[in-house]
């Protein structure tokens, strides 16, 4: 075989093997698999609507009369204590964090569909508690339980989409995940806007009633779609896995058999997957360790952008910044966020470079945060400052919703190793939720007038965080657009540097730590490259 350096190979245009097969078929041919993924992608609607509703409830007189205290210095005439504001918002993300930590063990036993059914039931129970109670302790309990539910919704829907969506459309499907999150936030803020002027508990009970809709739709819809073929293969259910692949794709028997073989090669022995995969395995092997760290960091840049304080306290933030019609502004920003995601979704399949979009989005977020803080420092409390903050918030939402949130979730889901996918993605999601919880918990200390009262100057903290995250993405995050999960494994096993992933030419399955014992001893000399010699590719 002719010698070839990695640098030379990286200059050769990449032609992903899996993508070449899937390009024979369009969206119409994959409609069943895409419909199943679209149904499951509705799960984050619950996460979004929770933030949309709770952010508005904290500025709603009917809610504050029950859980807050009178404060004539604020526009709404009431306020929440810093401690209650922290717990009401952050207990949900804390619950999601706890749920994410259990994803690995649960995913090894329960199917993706069963886990989503369990999340739906838990969501209903939590919402019943929140609607029935007038005691702050009961509200806290409901918030924690609905956080557990949302954590399960977010992680298991992601696992299903990653494992079922065709490689060509995986980015598109995961971007729809973010569409549902933003749509939930928009619906929540719109309903809050219309009920905010109502008196009594109805002002917040009506919005909370919306929480039941999606769990009901999911519970029925899941009856119509198959389980993840990868999860079925992990449990030795080859025939059900084959049927699941045929249900979702227009492939011939030979093509289905080939994909089954590819999945089998990428998965370790089923008994070892079920019994031996553990937390230590994510860090013991150098390749697995690299993939684990990248998945965690890739998903964590979403929290590092500082978006959680805007998401959790948006309406409250605008009110204390002196912006009139804070509820309407929140609705507009959520609508802008959806438009940004839809534009991005139309580009992601053809131009969806993860590294470029993430870096650009984080830089936009940094500039918006910095200028917001500067404007409020120079002209605090003025009408012109309020107008400027609204405009900068639009820029921020365009960068965050349109680029950062979508690609952070995609990166966190695509990069884990095959046999440790549920464990690694669960850990990455847990770290992401922990950062979200930390941001949500500490934000009131900075923005609440009863504490430090920084308000918009809070942006001074998050602008540097966004810039540091952008630098990390540029130097360390691999580009895996249009790659099958097996090709991603091959590139990691080959030790390809992050900046050379995009043009690397994959040549087929390579023995890896996902497939055999003693991989560390075998990895040296396993790197396989393709070379063009006299018009023919030699391997």
From TrEMBL:
> Which domain of life, per UniProt?
Eukaryota
What topology does the record note for this protein and the membrane?
Answer: Multi-pass membrane protein
Give me the Gene Ontology terms describing cellular component: membrane
* Ranges where the record places region Disordered: 512-539
Q: Does Nucleotide-binding appear among the keywords?
A: no
GO molecular function list: carbohydrate:proton symporter activity
Question: Where does the protein principally reside?
Answer: membrane
Where would you find this protein in the cell?
Answer: Membrane
InterPro entries referenced in this protein's UniProt entry, alphabetically: MFS_dom, MFS_sugar_transport-like, MFS_Sugar_Transporters, MFS_trans_sf, Sugar/inositol_transpt, Sugar_transporter_CS
Q: Which Pfam families match?
A: Sugar_tr
Q: Where is the Major facilitator superfamily (MFS) profile domain?
A: 36-481
Q: Does the keyword Transport apply?
A: yes
Q: Which PANTHER family match?
A: MAJOR FACILITATOR SUPERFAMILY (MFS) PROFILE DOMAIN-CONTAINING PROTEIN, PLASTIDIC GLUCOSE TRANSPORTER 4
Name-wise, this protein is General substrate transporter
Q: Where does this protein come from, organism-wise?
A: Podospora appendiculata
């Amino acid at each position: 075989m002719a010698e070839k350096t990695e640098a030379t190979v990286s200059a050769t245009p990449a032609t992903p093997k899996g993508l070449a097969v899937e390009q024979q078929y369009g969206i119409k041919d994959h409609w069943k698999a895409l419909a199943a993924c679209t149904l499951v992608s509705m799960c984050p609607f619950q996460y979004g609507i929770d933030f949309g509703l709770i952010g508005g409830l904290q500025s709603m007189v009917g809610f504050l009369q029950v859980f807050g205290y009178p404060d004539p210095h604020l526009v709404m005439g009431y306020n929440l204590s810093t401690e209650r504001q922290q717990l009401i918002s952050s207990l949900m993300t804390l619950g999601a964090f706890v749920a994410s930590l259990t994803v690995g063990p649960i995913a090894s036993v329960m199917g993706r569909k069963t886990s989503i059914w369990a999340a739906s039931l838990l969501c209903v129970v939590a919402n019943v508690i929140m609607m029935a109670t007038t005691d702050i302790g009961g509200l806290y309990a409901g918030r924690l339980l609905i956080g557990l539910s949302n954590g399960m919704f977010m992680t298991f829907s992601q696992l299903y989409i990653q494992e079922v969506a065709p490689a060509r459309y995986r980015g598109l499907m995961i971007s729809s995940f973010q569409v549902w999150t933003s749509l939930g936030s928009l619906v929540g803020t719109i309903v809050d806007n219309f009920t905010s002027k109502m008196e009594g508990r109805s002002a917040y009970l009506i919005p909370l009633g919306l929480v039941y809709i999606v769990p009901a739709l999911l519970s029925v819809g899941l009856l119509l779609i198959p389980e993840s073929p990868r999860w079925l293969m992990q449990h030795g259910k080859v025939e059900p896995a084959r049927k699941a692949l045929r249900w979702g794709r227009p492939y011939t028997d030979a093509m289905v058999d080939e994909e089954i073989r590819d999945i089998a090669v990428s998965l370790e022995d089923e008994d070892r997957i079920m019994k031996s995969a553990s937390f230590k395995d994510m860090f013991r092997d150098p390749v697995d360790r690299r993939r684990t760290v990248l998945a965690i960091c890739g998903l964590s840049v979403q929290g590092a952008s500082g978006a959680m304080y805007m998401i959790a306290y948006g309406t409250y933030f605008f009110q204390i910044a002196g912006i009139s019609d804070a509820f309407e502004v929140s609705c507009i920003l959520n609508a802008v966020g959806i438009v940004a995601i839809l534009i991005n979704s139309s580009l992601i399949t053809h131009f969806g470079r993860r590294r470029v979009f993430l870096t650009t989005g984080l830089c936009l977020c940094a500039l918006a945060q910095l200028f917001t803080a500067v404007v409020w420092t120079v002209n605090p409390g003025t009408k012109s400052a309020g107008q400027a903050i609204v405009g900068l918030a639009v820029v921020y939402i365009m960068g965050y919703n349109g680029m950062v949130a979508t690609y952070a979730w995609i990166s966190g889901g695509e990069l884990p190793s095959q046999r440790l996918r549920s464990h690694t993605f669960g850990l990455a999601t847990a770290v992401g939720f922990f950062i979200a919880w930390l941001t949500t918990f500490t934000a009131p200390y900075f923005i609440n007038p009863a504490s430090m009262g920084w308000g918009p100057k809070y942006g001074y903290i998050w602008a540097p965080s966004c810039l540091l995250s952008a630098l990390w993405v540029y130097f360390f995050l691999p580009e895996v657009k249009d790659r099958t999960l097996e090709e991603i494994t091959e590139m990691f096993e080959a030790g390809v540097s992050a900046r050379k992933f995009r043009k690397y030419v994959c040549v087929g399955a390579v023995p890896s730590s996902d497939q055999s014992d003693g991989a560390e001893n075998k990895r040296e000399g396993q790197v396989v490259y393709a070379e063009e010699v006299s018009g023919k590719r030699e391997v």
